[in-house]
Amino acid sequence: MTRVILNGCYGRMGKTLTTLIASQQNVEVVAGIDLNQGDAPFAVFSSLSECNIAADVVIDFSTPQSLHSYIPSAVEKNLAVVVATTGLEEKELTLLEEASSKIAIFRSGNMSLGINLLEKVVATAAKVLADSFDIEIVEKHHNQKQDSPSGTAMMLADSVNEALNNSLNYTFGRHGLKTKREKGELGIHAVRGGTIVGEHEVIFAGEDEVISFSHRAFSRNVFATGAIAAAKYIATVAPGIYNMSDMLALI
């Protein structure tokens, strides 16, 4: 049985995880962490340091800033961590790197299994098409999303770029640019509106033909499902930083 603590349990993803985990076997939510008030079928604490319930792993879909409050406590309590938060800056990445010498940390720009398969597909396509095709990425999310471009868009961009020996330069939108598209560009564009859960398209535009690879999430369940699988996996491995490729390699 994998015992889970949900950081940000009253948030949208926290509530989705609560419902989904309740329907599964061999995993349970034993506690939640949230500064807000609400109702939950488990004990909720204002910080991980205050939590006195034994667990195996913390799942976090909250904010980059929250890492600074709970990662030290996770290290102290020897809890594995699933970091599903995007928009991390260098200080958060450094914090995770330092903590990974003592605990197991799972981090992905997107917890969807489909997106992580797409990442592998576009990397392969880039190796075949990049010489004669321009590559652009368009991502769409709901109007409450704070980071832009999305962590998933950057994950896809980095996968394409790494496949091409990091030869591309990222261009974020083209407002104010009065020059033609350069050969070595990889364009990344963000759309925000309504309740779009998440859409990503990688476009390969060539001479007289366009090839596109896309993924659409219709509910948050796809991210929750991946996070639960990640929690079960990360609770069993040695300290270090792991990602979806590490987990998928075992499937």
Can you tell me about this structure?
The protein has 251 residues and is an alpha/beta fold. Helices cover 32% and strands 27% of the residues. The chain has 2 domains: 2-107 and 220-248, Rossmann fold; 113-217, 2-Layer Sandwich (Dihydrodipicolinate Reductase, domain 2), CATH 3.30.360. β5 (80-83), α3 (90-99) and β6 (104-107) form a beta-alpha-beta unit. It is elongated. The model has no long low-confidence stretch (mean pLDDT 94).
Summarize the structure.
The protein has 7 helices and 12 strands. The protein has helices at 12-22, 67-77, 90-99, 113-129, 151-163, 221-234, 244-248, and strands spanning 2-7, 27-33, 43-45, 57-60, 80-83, 104-107, 134-141, 169-172, 185-192, 198-206, 209-217, 240-242.
Structural class: alpha/beta
Distance between the termini: 19 Å
Mean pLDDT level:
94
Give helix % range: 25-40%
Label the CATH architecture of the largest domain: 3-Layer(aba) Sandwich
Strand order of the largest sheet: 3-2-1-4-5-6-12
Shape descriptor reads elongated
Record the SSE blueprint:
Layout: E1 2-7, H1 12-22, E2 27-33, E3 43-45, E4 57-60, H2 67-77, E5 80-83, H3 90-99, E6 104-107, H4 113-129, E7 134-141, H5 151-163, E8 169-172, E9 185-192, E10 198-206, E11 209-217, H6 221-234, E12 240-242, H7 244-248
Parallel strand pairs: 1-2, 1-4, 2-3, 4-5, 5-6, 6-12, 7-9, 8-9
Antiparallel strand pairs: 7-10, 10-11
Highlighted features:
251 residues; Rossmann fold; Dihydrodipicolinate Reductase, domain 2; 2 domains; 7-stranded parallel β-sheet; 5-stranded mixed β-sheet
